[in-house]
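Our platform keeps sequence and structure together, in a single record for each protein. Nothing more is needed to write down the fold, since each code stands for a local backbone conformation. An entry from our holdings is shown next, in its original layout:
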Amino acid sequence: QVQLVESGGGLVQPGGSLRLSCAASGSIFSINRMGWYRQAPGKQRELVATITSGGNTNYGDSVKGRFTISRDNAKNTVYLQMNSLKPEDTAVYYCNALGYDSSRVVYDNWGQGTQVTVSS
């Protein structure tokens, strides 16, 4: 099994910054793509950003230019640097990983989520 553990959420004022981390562990053969999604109360889960093992990135329109996704393949960890935060960024942020486990079975797993609140 592959587990994801997120950290770094919290309360920040508008215009501030936060950095989220997500570490994958377990029976990992490969992690083809890692990413972040978020869900605000009463809304559907939406894409924040994804990054492939080769470093290709994709961002949701609402975060382009403000958020940066990166990963450390050696540590099986993905990061999300969030700058110029707005109240509408308030949500639970979920880490996602897609790849193959040690049995060469595809996994598409989620972390437990970390709360980000942007408020003065």
Summary: DSSP finds no helices and eleven strands in the chain.
